[in-house]
Amino acid sequence: QTLGKSLGFYGDFKHYAKPLDNNSSKDSSADSDASASSGETNTASDSLYSQTQNGTTLTLSEVYCNDSALYLSMTIQTENEFPDCFLNQEQKPIILFGMDSTLDYSFKDASEDDALLNSYLDGKQIDSHTYFGVLRLNKEDILTSENESIPDNFNIQLNVKNICGYKPDDSAPEMPQDLKDAYQQAMAENGLDEDNYKNFTEEQQEIEHRLFTEMWNRYYERYPDATEGLNHYNTWTLEGDWNFSVDVEKNTSDSITKETKAVDSDGNGILSVTKTPFEISLDVTDPEFKYFAIVLDADGNLLSTNGTSGSAYTVAVQDSDVSSISVYLCDYDEYMDELKGYYFSEDYQEKAKTKTFKQLLDEHAVASDTINFKR
Predict the structure, then answer these.
(1) pLDDT at 117 over 80
(2) CB-CB neighbours of 101 under 10 Å
């Protein structure tokens, strides 16, 4: 309720999500002994779903799971002010789980695929000490096979080793002058001027690329920390060891799955669609990666992944009218090179007076179907 429409996949979660009871205390005797031996800094206020490590409290709030995704909402509270954070295009802080954080499922063996490295917490900063976020995982992130489905009941073990955020400014050292000078000297010895790169022969481009790579290799030898994708130059880190066990019951109320006819002559394409209160997911088979699948709402508007679904074929419902949808199977190259640009062009509203995006797809799609979800 607090995050509201700031979420990429927003909706009326209060009717579907299960609140987690943070008044339930952990078994104090066993856990206190374990914490003391491991050097953990849990506080007396720790509960089943709230733990404090090194001045940072991570509290799980609600859990919701349907046939398409698992949602876990949580609060991050810090004793000191929350670190400054880089903002994405929606002006949201980019908050991530760092190295070695995992989410394990009771219905399968733990594997490297369960690592939460770079898993994005969609949410917003409430005040200078508090961040509300939602971890959302698609079924593709959870299951090991396309033929599997999410069980009706299961347990998850969330293990968070650190929480990260991108700094507003990357503080990595600039390229040292002596390395620049060595590069320039090597270029001159080969009769090359980098300002004239566009006129280089293929052989000259290969020489320049080799010299440029050598310069950066020497840079990384001098600053080895800068080689990591997440490093102390571009990322702040809240260290800890938060561990939670959560029982999950899949909620399929208001979820509908329907087969479609949007397939090619070989039976490849969009086999079925699943609509939940928050997303529409497509079951697509495309062994040769020839196609791209598109979903339009009842008004002919393109439904979007909003950058947080983790899958090109899971789109957000939000406030769209999805009482019926249109699905299209298009040639991948044609869609990316031509059709997509038509919809996202600055003058689309004017062009739509003559031909809408739906009409364009009707003309060009390999296959299509309209699915009515009204019961």
Answers:
(1) no
(2) 22
H or E segment and range at residue 185:
helix 177-189
**DSSP-assigned letter for residue 74:** E
Distances (CA, A) of 318 to 9, 104, 127: 6, 29, 26
Taking the C-alpha atoms of residue 352 and residue 300, their distance in angstroms, rounded to an integer, is: 11
- The pair of structure tokens assigned to 46 is 């720790």
CA distance 261 to 295: 14
Residue 174 DSSP label: P
In the three-class reduction of DSSP (H, G, I as helix; E, B as strand; rest coil), residue 112 is classed as helix
Where helices occur in the chain by DSSP H, the ranges are 28-38, 139-142, 177-189, 202-222, 332-334, 340-344, 348-351, 357-364
What pTM was computed for the model? 0.83
Closest CA to 137 of 207, 225, 65, 77: 65
Residue 71 and residue 49: Cα distance in Å, rounded? 15
Residue 325 CB burial class (10 angstroms; 0-12, 13-18, ≥19)? buried
Distance CA 298, CA 258 (A): 16
Pick the closest to residue 252 from 111, 65, 116, 57 (CA basis). 65
Phi, psi of 255 (to 5 degrees): -110, 135
Asked whether residue 276 carries a pLDDT value surpassing 80, the answer given is yes
Do 64 and 17 contact (CB within 8 A), yes or no? yes
Torsion of CA 28, 29, 31, 33, to 10 degrees: 140
Q: What is the mean pLDDT of residues 342-371?
A: 97
Compute how many other C-beta atoms are within 10 angstroms of the C-beta atom of residue 59.
19
Range of weakest confidence among 29-43, 48-62, 354-368: 29-43
pLDDT tier, 356 (very low <50, low <70, confident <90, very high otherwise):
very high
User: Given the structure tokens 């006819």, which residue do they identify?
Assistant: 261
Rounded CA gap, 241 and 258, in Å? 43
